[in-house]
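Our preliminary data section would be incomplete without showing what the modeling component actually yields. Below, a chain of 157 amino acids is followed by its predicted structure, encoded as tokens that our downstream tools consume directly.
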Amino acid sequence: MSTRQEFNIGGKNGSTGSIGGIILLILGFVVLFFVAKGIFTILSWVAPVLLILTLIIDYTVITGFGKFIINLFKNNILTGILAVLLTVIGFPIVAGFLFFKSILKRKIGKIIDDQAPKEIYADYEVVEEEEEDFLELPKIDKKIEDVDDNEYDDLFK
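Predicted structure:
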């Protein structure tokens, strides 16, 4: 025999339980909104500094982003305009993204440089050349027989 348990928020009949769940959902979204607003506010104050640090760390990240926007304009003007508007509106987020991308690119570059071998030369031996004509073969005179009774050649006549 199976058992069934029911958990209700607010009351035994379940009518206030659904209202309680909705209230908790709304409160969760309100808390999430204020957390996102706080992060966006902090990023908006720090964004110019992050952009300058990105230029110092690796300026190619910013030029690459600019080339990406220009390519969007070349492919589809509407998409390019939308990308520029989202970049302007979300400048703090874009600046943070570019900063962390430059840091990540720098760390990956250091890891690759550390793993690359440091100019290890292979041992070699100078081989002196021998005569140039040692591979020349004598010419063979081969007689070509004219066969007129070839059925294969008759196909092409």
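The chain is about 65% helix and 0% strand. The CA atoms of residues 23 and 111 lie 50 Å apart. Preliminary results of this kind motivate Aim 1 of the renewal.
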